[in-house]
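Worked example (supplementary).
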Amino acid sequence: MAELNTGDSGGGKDKKVRSKKQNSKVDLTAMVDLAFLLITFFMLTTTLSKPQSMNLGLPDKDEPNKQNVDIKVDENRTMTILLGANNKLLRYNGLLATPVAGGAPKDFIYGKEGIRKELLKVKKDVLAYSTAKGKPKNGMIVIIKPSKKSTYRNLVDILDEMAIVDVPTYAIVNEFTPEEAKLLEGK
Amino acid sequence: MAGKSSKKAASIDMTAMCDVAFLLLTFFILTATAKIPEALPVDTPQSTVQTKLPESDLATLTIGKGKVFFDLKGREVRVKTLELMGQKYGVEFTDDEKSKFALMEGIGVPILNLKQLIEMKTAERSKAGQPGVPTDSLDNQLKEWVYNARIANIELNDKELQIAIKGDAKEEYPSIRKVMDILQDQGINSFSLVTGLRGKNF
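After joint prediction of all chains, the assembly is encoded as:
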């Protein structure tokens, strides 16, 4: 308010009033700087502190999960992913005893160059296969089997791949057949 | 002198700007919620999924180093849950203890030791080396915590409680599975996994 009159400095005002005016004028630059710095800080922390999450739905526990033995599920559409110790990852397509062409058990690594390429390829193949059978809605089925030695990171990584590749159906299955256990320990 | 006039032009009235800045500052300070220190610090794995966790009606189960910690959002829900747990295990909590519990971070002690934990100061609690909520089949207190928290949340907010699992990236799968099994035994088949943010080109 006091600064409103500073424009007309000319006038015939005496020295006393003028010096009083000068004292009342405070340099607010530093204060405004600080205020905006704090605003920026609070804005960023309030919006960024919310943790991310991924939703996971599991099948009902009461009915046993029979996806890998159920005859109604076409084994040509399934891919089984075994998660082992030390970030080991193994997959086979179809049944373990009689895998589909090119689907024999094989090691993969996590990420873009590893399992994702394979997932995308199989997804395409399955879609072509289902379309040929006249049921294009039947997408691929992925069965994830985390072993006792696999870590939580492995599980989240593979669930993330499911989200990236957009696999229509996937399930986490805890039962290991002896052959699968041997396969994971073998190498 | 020319210097005088140029000085005048450079000085701008900052009062209004300062007012606005402080108004915004006050707003952000008041809306920001204080971050309560975590009882069990964990390193969450990353994912590209970007779903935000809900702000309320949420229970977080933190899993790390083989221990499980239980945390709950909302003061009233916490108090109600504590009352229900007290009834279940025959522990009486005073009003003072209840109000302290409402503001506490996650807990990781058996219910019988909870009174001692509430009495501690915040700094002491984080150093106390809490053993984790018991999850054995004989003494499954985690199950009771989740169950009572759900009841409390339905009574107070009329909403089903959301469950989030916050696991350490290096935690082995069986301990995660144990917690998932406890949840599934109660018919909770859908829950969230807390993850960090990962770059797009993973």
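Two points are worth noting when inspecting this output. Residues 15-31 of chain B form the longest helix (17 residues). The first strand of chain B starts at residue 46 and ends at 47.
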